[in-house]
Backbone:
């Protein structure tokens, strides 16, 4: 069966190209595009359902070479509160990624722009026989308090060109990849709707199909890891990062 096409055109701000810091779209545009994209996930081609009742999806935008992958899960607020979940994945979430995503070898904080916006670099372990991959990106978070008393938090990550950054000297050597990610936690009818969508180019000689076939399972594995941490507070200590 052929993959569906998204019912929207992926904006340039979410293309797999490294943006300059001065050339990044306005925050409002990025978060608006993230909401639109995440709202379409239920219309994508459905994939497997993983541990924790995590549903996965795949789609390829019209006239685009980049494949998009997504996950979605619902969690009762009687078990997991918005405050607890956003406290893990929100503004301070990058420091915790090492714990929840085993493939991440190292997380480096390069520059803070505001409390909700910063420049980061992560080093991923690639599958044998490929060398580690380095992803440099701008990460933004937004917390919204709605008029009905509910809350929603959104995360946007887009590739960033850090070649002119003095802090780039702290980055490990490795093949440079590109990653676009949008994520949202939203209170909705007594549940938390937690969803995430991403497109990735690992760079180098890794075939796209090799990467695409394993992304959904890796995306889904984050959810039970985080929920487990929430029910085991002693495991929420921040791992070392730079």
Residues:
């Amino acid at each position: 069966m052929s993959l569906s096409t998204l019912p929207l055109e992926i904006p340039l701000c979410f293309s797999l190209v490294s943006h300059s810091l001065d050339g990044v779209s306005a925050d409002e545009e990025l978060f608006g595009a993230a909401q639109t994209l995440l709202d379409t996930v239920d219309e994508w081609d459905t994939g497997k359902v993983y541990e924790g009742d995590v549903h996965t999806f795949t789609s390829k935008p019209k006239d685009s070479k980049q494949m998009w992958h997504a996950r979605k899960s619902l969690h009762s607020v009687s078990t997991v509160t918005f405050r607890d979940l956003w406290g893990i994945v929100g503004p301070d979430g990058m420091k915790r990624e090492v714990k929840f995503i085993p493939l991440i070898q190292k997380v480096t904080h390069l520059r803070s722009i505001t409390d909700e916006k910063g420049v980061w670099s992560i080093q991923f372990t690639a599958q044998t026989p490929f060398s580690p991959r380095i992803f440099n990106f701008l990460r933004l978070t937004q917390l919204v308090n709605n008029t009905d008393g509910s809350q929603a938090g959104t995360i946007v990550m887009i590739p960033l060109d850090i070649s002119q950054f003095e802090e780039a000297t702290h980055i490990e050597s490795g093949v440079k990849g590109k990653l676009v990610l949008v994520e949202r936690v939203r209170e909705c009818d007594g549940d938390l709707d937690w969803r995430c969508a991403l497109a990735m180019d690992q760079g180098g000689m890794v075939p796209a199909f090799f990467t695409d076939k394993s992304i959904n399972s890796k995306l889904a594995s984050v959810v039970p890891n985080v929920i487990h941490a929430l029910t085991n507070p002693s495991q929420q200590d921040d791992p070392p990062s730079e």
